[in-house]
Amino acid sequence: MDQALVTQLGDELYEALAQRKTVTPLSSRHADITIEDGYHIQQRLIARRLEAGEKVVGKKIGVTSQAVMNMLGVGQPDFGWLLDGMVYNEGESIPMDGLIQPKAEGEIAFVLKRDLLGPGISNADVLAATAGVMACFEIVDSRIENWKIKIQDTVADNASCGVFVLGDRLVDPRDVDLSTCGMILEKNGEIVGTGAGAATMGSPVNAVAWLANTLGRLGIPLKAGEVILSGALAAMVPVVKGDNLRVTIGGIGGCSVRFV
């Protein structure tokens, strides 16, 4: 895909984000689009957001479960960028008029205390570089109409990232088994999802190591102070105005959010 088209599609996604509207799937209009093309388009989308004044505060990992990989026909996760305009605090209300077609995911967030630059990053390196882990919500949102996404679409659309909410506790990752810790996701007082750390590539630590090594090959570090969202522990939950959600992860803590 030539640079002019990459720029055009990145700008189209940026305008969709800014205007809270959707676009037809890129993969339906450009049959030869590749995952690499998707990342180039993503870079243009993020560049537009940075030009508008936002700052990078972390990264996110998506497509971490085997079920989603199978659905999208891929054998590996994807990644996107977290910006300061995406951040909400524990218990804070999220206005629905800032989103398009949101869904909530319960996840484990890693807060880094030192840089990680792959390749060659091990799980032990990830744990040594982590200040703590937190329960969190990622509110995924797609600029692609009706979530009709292939992997190329979600990659181009910054891995379908909307906003995120960090929980109420920061826990040393060595004090909890991140593979077996259980998650309960409640919506308006009813349990709508359950999962465990192993849902994310066997362990969220595996996911963060994958990200550090994948970005390292591109010369991009995970930086001290950044937040890394490690991937959903259960299926996405659609949300509407008035919904109240809480996620609780054993040994880590909880996170609450409401939509107004």
Describe the structure.
With 260 residues, the chain is of the alpha+beta class. The protein has one domain (56-259): Fumarylacetoacetate hydrolase, domain 2, CATH 3.90.850.10. The protein is 27% helix and 30% strand. It has helices spanning 3-19, 26-29, 35-51, 66-72, 123-129, 151-156, 204-216, and strands at residues 56-62, 78-83, 87-88, 93-94, 103-112, 130-140, 161-166, 182-187, 190-196, 227-232, 237-238, 244-249, 253-259. Strands 1, 2, 3, 5, 6, 7, 10 and 11 form an eight-stranded mixed beta sheet that branches. Strands 4-13-12-8-9 form a five-stranded mixed beta sheet, with no helix packed on it. Helix 1 (3-19) packs across helix 3 and helix 5 (123-129) packs across helix 7. The longest helix has 17 residues, at 3-19. It is globular, with a radius of gyration of 17 Å.
Summarize the structure.
Helices cover 27% and strands 30% of the residues.
Task: Give the tags.
7 helices, 27% helix, Fumarylacetoacetate hydrolase, domain 2, single chain, eight-stranded mixed beta sheet
- Give the N-terminus to C-terminus distance in angstroms: 40 Å
CATH architecture: Alpha-Beta Complex
Number of strand segments: 13
CATH topology name, in short, is Fumarylacetoacetate hydrolase, domain 2
Portion of residues within helices: 25-40%
Q: Which word captures the global form?
A: globular
Mean pLDDT: 95
Q: Return residue spans where pLDDT drops below 50 for at least 5 consecutive residues.
A: none
